[in-house]
Write a structure and sequence with these properties.
Elements: H1 2-43, E1 46-66, E2 72-86, E3 91-96, H2 98-103, E4 109-115, E5 118-124
Length: 127
């Protein structure tokens, strides 16, 4: 019985430390990836091209947490995307802000400005 107790005092701390190391590694990877993407975008030229909005979509993420009264609270976050088709026929999808998403409509044509993978603006032109 005593050896089982000793094993638990050996295994549980190792398991907890392993979980902490994995969480820290994942967070570090996400921060480094984000910084790498930001650096890449900053090095790219700002391009403005004529394009057409061919589709819009949104992605809803839900997370839950417990509060002090053991009630589960849910929160949601929505990410908005627009796909643009440039004159060459290539399509590019960007994540955009919610207020911009509401102003854009499929079929709109105009000038798209972007820098690398970063959406900057879209100015609609009458056709």
């Amino acid at each position: 019985m005593e050896t089982e107790s000793n094993i638990m005092f050996t295994i549980v701390p190792i398991f907890i430390m392993l979980v902490v190391v994995i969480i820290v590694a994942v967070l570090l990877f996400r921060v480094l990836s984000s910084n790498k993407q930001r650096s890449y975008n900053n090095k790219q030229p700002v391009l403005t091209v004529f394009s057409k909005i061919v589709s819009k979509r949104s992605k809803v993420s839900t997370s839950s947490s417990n509060n002090q009264d053991d009630h589960i609270r849910y929160s949601t976050h929505t990410t908005y995307f627009a796909t643009f088709e440039v004159e060459s026929g290539d399509r590019i999808e960007f994540s955009i802000q919610d207020r911009e998403f509401g102003l854009l409509a499929e079929g709109d044509q105009g000038k798209l400005s972007f820098q690398g993978t970063r959406y900057l603006s879209f100015s609609r032109e009458a056709v």
